[in-house]
Structure formats: C-alpha cells, structure tokens
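hi! just following up on the protien thing from before. the input was this:
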Amino acid sequence: DKEVRAIFLRLFAQLFQGYRSCLQLIRIHAEPVIHFHKAAFLGQRGLIENDFLTKVLNGMAFAGFVSERGPPFRTCDLFDELVAFEVERIKAEEGNPPKMIKHVRELAEQLFKNENPNPHIAFQKVPRPTEGSHLRVHILPFPRINEGRVQELLQEGLARSQGAPSAARGDKKCVVPAGPPVGTFV
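and the predicted 3d structure came back as:
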C-alpha cells in the first residue's frame, strides 16, 4: 500500500516539478489570492501541446492543490521536500530501476512512519467476559492499586517522553522551499 502511494508521490513530484516558480500572489482582495500561471509552466517545460498535462492543470483537483499548497508559509511535508530537493535524484534514477525501487521503498518507509509515529504502542482489544463469569468462585478479586507505584511509573514515562526526540512531524509552519525553477527541467 505504502509503496504504491510512494510511486504516485514520485509521479506527481516529477509532473509538478517547478510549479512553485509559476505561482503568483495577488493582493487586491482582503485575502490574498494565489494564481498559477499555467502558460508559463507549460511553456518553460516545452509541454504546451501536451493534452494530458493541460487537462490536469485545468481540473478542479489541481485548483484545490494550488489553493492548499500555494501559500509560501505553511506546514511542509514529504511532497514539498521531493519537489524542492530530490529533483536531481529522480532524474538520475530514470534509467536505473534498482535505484528507483530503492527510493520508492525509502519513501514508503517515510509514509509509514508519518502515519505510525509510535509503532511500538499496540492497542489490544480486551475480550468481553463470558456469560456467568461473575459467578465463578475461582477468580481472585482485583488487587488494590499502589498509588505510589502509579505515580512513579507516570514520572518515568514523562521523563522518557521529554528526553526522546519526536518521531512524528509537528505542525510547525515554515517557508516552503521553492526548489529549482521550471526552466531547468527542459
């Protein structure tokens, strides 16, 4: 599942490489509007006659993509890093399938880590007691809880969580890296 998603992530990163250089911020309204200059994007990549890409750029999904990913200051993710920093790596892997597969597996691992930041925490379902279980005599009563030991365990857990680096990405906003301009992909 994650490898298929990683393949599509790479595909869209290749398809939209340099899109940030064709974004225009229009400030004539109370809220700034982000506009994507489609002709510049297609012209600089030499794809003006490409019907598929033209239809993708004219679609509502791409308009949503621009409005969501257009702001220059927002939370960055794996796609932003791919578009900005992995352009040359993706280009170099085009003729080398083993390297491409290795990169796809690395991306799949990152996607898995993003969705499961704490894989060691497993949730188990507690089975429901069977009928008449409360009538059984051989079941021992639940032991009393030692409040001192509970506090001690809580303190240990807090100390561990404060000392360990967070595996999940925070929602920390930053300036989105623009990556290379569109003209470098021709």
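DSSP finds eight helices and four strands in the chain.
The chain has a mean pLDDT of 82.
cheers
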